[in-house]
Amino acid sequence: MSSHGTPIPMTSRANGPLTGTANVPGDKSISHRSLILGALCVGRTEVTGLLEGQDVLDTAKAMQAFGAEVTQHAPGHWTIDGVGVGGFAEPDQVIDCGNSGTGVRLIMGCMATSPISATFTGDASLNKRPMARVTDPLALFGAQAVGRSQGRLPMTIVGAANPVPVRYATPVPSAQVKSAVLLAGLNAPGDTVVIEREATRDHSERMLAGFGAQITTQDTPEGHVITLTGQPELQAQSIVVPRDPSSAAFPVCAALITPGSDVLVPNIGLNPTRAGLYTTLREMGADLVYENLREEGGEPVADLRARFSPDLKGIEVDPARAASMIDEYPVLSVVASFAEGKTYMPGVKELRVKESDRIDAMAKGLRLNGVDVDEGEDWWTVHGLGHGNVPGGATVVTELDHRIAMSFMVMGFASNAPVSLDDGQPIATSFPIFEPLMAALGAQIDRSDT
Length: 450
Ligand code: S3P
Known about the structure:
By secondary structure, the chain is α+β, with helices and mostly antiparallel strands.
């Protein structure tokens, strides 16, 4: 999806309480990895609950371009007939990863240790994002990258014909970088080691183990040391993708700020590397309960019940938790607008290199809608106004960023005047059913700019 269609303006407005059950789509991180690891097995991997957002569809197309057979049988039900570790074919065409940083970085990783070349591109957002964080460690395996200035896409990766294993300490807390190195390590002989100072989402490690790779994680004074033994024969799997805690954040946060609301969001994966938002919201005084807490496929899962929370308080968010809620700061800043007092969010430099500069995009939109924000390079503070006091009334520029778009739609459910988007199209990258799902809870979102 490198070209962008006609913008779709959207407006949300107060429409009474939100009530009912919100079945959010499958996890985006796990969906990408299911397709990629399925392509790296010999045999048929079966996936149910796959997120059919544009980002994941672009990864499916890419896996086909590298030689895997990827088939949709029914909504969410897909199979991948893989080519095996080291079996990727050279694609005939440029690989277009659309809006997806996860897609492009993981795919670069898994082709970089095969003797093939591939050229990658994306939409205007992806083509601005830094890729050197991935191509630097891939060069250690023997791969070469030629892109635009400052390591931007479009970019060609020439895979290493004789890859060597790598020991790499990630300089930024990034699961995408960690995963790219691990996926490259699959086709290098011997042990590839990744060391991360702060734990980031560990889906790649869990899923590689599930597909039969030899992979261990040790906590040491250096950080988490992850060791993968190269050239395994991965075994095809049946995968049930859990629902996405990052998508659940939108109906949950909408319920917390909208008077009278009571929303149940079932079956949410609460892997500790993903669940930081929910700890933070509880510290702010959110009426958020985990019901039916259980284990599924080795992961903690619960049904989340969120009710209108009249006494939200601003807090200082623990920076040690940043990686576990990195995608949720935009919608947290909306909740913070409805809390009493300041919410200070330190240690979040990574927000500046997401689908948009998320501190800048949120600060601009919040200010336009009457909320004060202070910001620095790696922190920001939202000055909460309390329930009933958030003006709204402005149109926000979504900058090709799905989470900016959905965050401001959530704001409009509880602000005094409606909130509009210049373009709600990016929502489809991760949450294609956002509008009907929110409408079923009683929310009003119109496809118009007033
Ligand atoms: C993701 C990792 C995160 C996150 C992204 C998905 C993943 O990015 O923001 O939405 O699936 O590995 P970083 O690892 O770059 O922080």
